[in-house]
Amino acid sequence: MSAPRRVTQRGLWFEEFEIGVIYEHRPGRTVTEADNVLFTTLTMNTQALHLDAAFADAQPPFNQRLVNSMFTLSTLIGLSIAQLTQGTLVGNLGFSEIAFPKPVFHGDTLYAETVVTEKRLSKSRPGEGIVTLAHTGYNQHGDVVVTAVRKTLVRTKETAA
């Protein structure tokens, strides 16, 4: 009897990214009050709109605490990792076009998708390529709550050997 074949979860090699394809990332992530308070305090963000319920409840137009936008951005990127860059990423090169069109509240569930908009082999780093990813995050109602463009440096398949 032969040994079973093993499959290790990983992201995509440079060659596997397809321009224009929409990669849907599941499962989503429901944001709790604890997530928001922990992230906000860990990052030394003293914004009362994240931490002080009495203050935030009195502030129009939302009249409730808002989830820290940096947590929202981090979660957007995090939702994409297992499918796109787990173990194949060399590093992030930069983020741009970050926007938060609608707020996130405690109890909202974030879902994400990514479109590859560009890719090219690196001119200075053999065995690596630059992939541009346009990430979009939605809440449970389908409202866009965050967008970001991320440039990444990813290994080519030849580096797997």
Would you summarize the structure shown here?
With 161 residues, the protein is α+β, with helices and mostly antiparallel strands. The protein is built from four helices and five strands, in the order E-H-H-H-H-E-E-E-E.
Structural notes for this entry:
The protein has a 5-stranded antiparallel beta sheet with strand order 1-3-4-5-2, with helices on one face. The longest helix has 16 residues, at 69-84. Helices cover 22% and strands 35% of the residues. The model has no long low-confidence stretch (mean pLDDT 96). The protein is an alpha+beta fold and 161 residues long.
Topology:
Layout lengths: L21 E9 L2 H10 L5 H4 L1 H5 L11 H16 L4 E11 L9 E13 L6 E11 L5 E12 L6
Antiparallel strand pairs: 1-3, 2-5, 3-4, 4-5
Structural class: alpha+beta
Instruction: Determine the strand fraction and express it as a percent band.
Output: 25-35%
Largest sheet: 5 strands, antiparallel
How helical, in percent, are the residues? 10-25%
Number of β-strand runs: 5
Radius of gyration: 19 Å
> How far from one another are the termini?
27 Å
- H-E order: EHHHHEEEE
Number of helices: 4
Q: Give the mean pLDDT.
A: 96
Strand arrangement across the biggest beta sheet: 1-3-4-5-2
Shape: elongated
Provide the low-confidence segments as ranges: none
